[in-house]
Amino acid sequence: MTHLPLVPARQDRFLARLDDPVEGDRAPFLDPWDRLCAQHGYDVAEKPWNNATIYSDFLNSEEADA
User: Fold this and answer.
1) DSSP character string of 1-66
2) Structural domain contains residue 3
3) How many domains does the chain have?
4) I need a surface site. Which of 23, 37, 55, 58 has the fewest CB within 10 A?
5) What is the pLDDT of residues 4-54, one digit of tens each?
């Protein structure tokens, strides 16, 4: 069985992983949201996930406008 390391429940560390090809949102096994919820529970996962994805969307929209 493959062991996946603990996903950090901090916005800054989680945001850095979103674009990672192995552990990011295009990961082949368990997307980051599912891992975060499975490892920390929904109540802990919700805030860093929402903050990180909102910030990521903002950064991507700025790049598209430039």
Assistant:
1) -PPPPPPP-SHHHHHHHHT-TTTSTT-SSS-HHHHHHHHH-HHHHHHHHHHHHHHHHHHHHHHHH-
2) no
3) 1
4) 58
5) 677 777 777 777 777 676 666 666 566 778 888 888 899 998 998 888 888
